[in-house]
């Protein structure tokens, strides 16, 4: 199974770069890409979970930002996508940089910013339902990853695959050849917000080890996730960010 995951990941798109995420593209998103209301869950920089809503107008500007149903007044804008068609740069009005990693249908997304806010979003989400351990179990999560350095410079993105077995053991393969497996099975840590956590280790590099955290979208068809090695200098160094779909 791991060999087939590796081959499939290599067949998915890959791209390298080296520029700051806010200048990978300066184009305005097309109206059918981000325009509308996106809702989901997010983990803040202290590890607390929240419900979140972001609304974008046709220019890519954030016109509404709700956290736990309360308008924060925080505003910003998105540009993109880059040449992969799925990565948008996000810049808040206070200068904080972020990114939005979507699927190709522009219906689901993973997002993050420099304050270590990470979460999942679904466009026009209908409702939030309680999450179960079984919701994360899937023999073939497929998607893509995003890699940044500590200065939020874009380094690369590419295909990614994740297998979560019935016993909640997991293994994953990224398009650049990185292969990892669990050292602790993935478990449901927050049934209201759909947060799951396990621990991983790179099969070829023992120093690349740490938590794997995933957040399901409200319809449970997509998962935003990250792996982070605590030995690195600081977020987002040593972290990879993912958007998977069933």
What is the multimeric organization of the chains shown?
single chain
- Helix content percent band: under 10%
Tally of strands: 18
Low-confidence stretches: 1-19
CATH-defined fold name of the largest domain: Porin
Strand content: over 45%
- Cα(first) to Cα(last) distance is 17 Å
Order of helices and strands: HEEEEEEEEEEEEEEEEEE
Q: Any guess at the CATH architecture of the largest domain?
A: Beta Barrel
Helix segment tally = 1
Strand order of the largest sheet: 5-4-3-2-10-9-8-7-6
Helix and strand content put the structural class at: mainly beta
Shape: globular
Main beta-sheet strand count, sense and barrel state: 9 strands, antiparallel
Mean pLDDT: 87
Count of domains: 2
Note the main attributes of this structure.
mainly beta, 18 strands, Porin, 246 residues, 1 helix, 9-stranded antiparallel beta sheet, 8-stranded antiparallel barrel
């Amino acid at each position: 199974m791991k060999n087939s995951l590796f081959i499939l990941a290599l067949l998915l798109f890959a791209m390298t770069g080296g520029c700051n995420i806010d200048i990978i593209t300066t184009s305005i998103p097309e109206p059918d890409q981000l325009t509308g209301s996106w809702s989901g869950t997010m983990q803040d920089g202290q590890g607390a979970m929240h419900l979140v809503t972001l609304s974008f107008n046709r220019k890519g500007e954030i016109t509404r930002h709700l956290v736990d149903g309360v308008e924060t007044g925080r505003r910003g804008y998105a540009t993109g996508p880059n040449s992969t068609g799925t990565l948008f740069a996000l810049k808040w009005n206070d200068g904080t940089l972020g990114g939005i990693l979507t699927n190709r249908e522009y219906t689901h997304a993973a997002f993050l910013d420099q304050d270590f806010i990470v979460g999942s979003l679904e466009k026009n989400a209908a409702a939030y339902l309680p999450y179960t351990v079984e919701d994360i179990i899937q023999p073939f999560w497929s998607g893509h990853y995003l890699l940044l350095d500590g200065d939020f410079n874009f380094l690369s993105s590419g295909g990614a695959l994740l297998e979560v077995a019935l016993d909640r053991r997991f293994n994953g393969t990224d398009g650049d050849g990185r292969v990892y497996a669990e050292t602790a099975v993935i478990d449901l840590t927050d049934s209201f917000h759909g947060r799951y956590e396990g621990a991983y280790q790179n099969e070829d590099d023992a120093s690349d080890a740490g938590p794997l955290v995933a957040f399901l979208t409200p319809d449970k068809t997509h998962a935003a996730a990250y792996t982070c090695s605590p030995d690195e200098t600081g977020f987002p160094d040593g972290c990879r960010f993912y958007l998977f779909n069933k």
